[in-house]
Fold:
Amino acid sequence: MPLRLPPATLDPSLINQVLAGNTARIQWKDYKCELLTPLYGGGVEAGKVDRNMPVRASAIRGQLRFWWRLLAQHKWHLDDIRAEEFDLWGGLDAHNIHASRVWVRVVGTSKLKEDSWKKANAPYALFPARDRNALLVQPGLTWILRVGFDSRLDGDVQTRVDETLRWWASFGGVGARTRRGLGAVWVQGLDTITLEEAKAAGCQLVIGNKASDPTKAWTDAVAKLKDFRQKPSFARNKGPGRSLWPEPDAIRSITGTCVLRHKPVHKAGKVFPRAAFGLPIIFHFKDKGDPADHTLQAQNHDRLASPLILRPYSADGITWAAAALLLPHKHVDHMELELKAGKTTHSIHPYWQPEKAKDVPPLASTQGKDALSAFLEFFKK
Structure:
């Protein structure tokens, strides 16, 4: 990724002015954190753990900004989110440098233990780790998250930061693939976000079956997603049978390529409902004569983060359950996609049509809902 250059109109002398003026007394709060599920990646090099700095303050700070923006838009309804964000978290605009008024430090990290990704018992959530044969930090790692606040913060602003911390603690994490439950944390002293609070922020939170511990709750949640997408007699025919989802036949129809016994027969046609779970998706066909590998991605974007978060959930740190959180996702409904193979690109728009749900067996009973909403119904069962 190219470095972002400062605006041409920015006066470099402002940098020293901002740093010199940033002398307000900082009020610090300490939070004891414990890793609940394996930590994947999180270091400078993708997919690798930094043994000297397994938990990075800058990464936590980035997640806090994400949750703050979500709440600013969908719960607090702030008038000028960008300006408010710069004023609180710092950054550059066209003319000014804004110093952060919130500081994040990580101290007192305990000795980490690593093990093979194979022992995590959730390979469906760990395919990048499988490809790299990665080591994961094991649950039980502890550290102190030290958060500093500008003493001049307005009371309402302070309250919003506190709420942001709670959202990160409840549904965020550390390292990579936190939306699939890796790197989940328990933070002492922060109340877990409730069903009512999630709804007030435009999210849908579903609590599933109870589990004996957070790792089991996480693997149960991941298993639900795997079943929804792949379970025989639900998402595919029994045995090594064909998928009951439309995407493989859609690619066969678009490319005009197929094995004779795999002629496209899916009634839903050229739709890609599972794109809503996040992009890119790589489609691999095993049989010679079927299409080559294809990648489905959003136009002008290499990656689209999933609006679905899976993780262990607890209100007290003692009793655990699998949980699924669906973030606000109106942007997903209007995605324009590209299907790529080599130098060939096919435009996909619309990628989904709700009236086709009746022709997609995993969605047939959902009365025209999209795949994400249908998954939440499946998760409840």
About this structure: Confidence is low (pLDDT under 50) at residues 9-21. The first helix runs from residue 13 to 21.
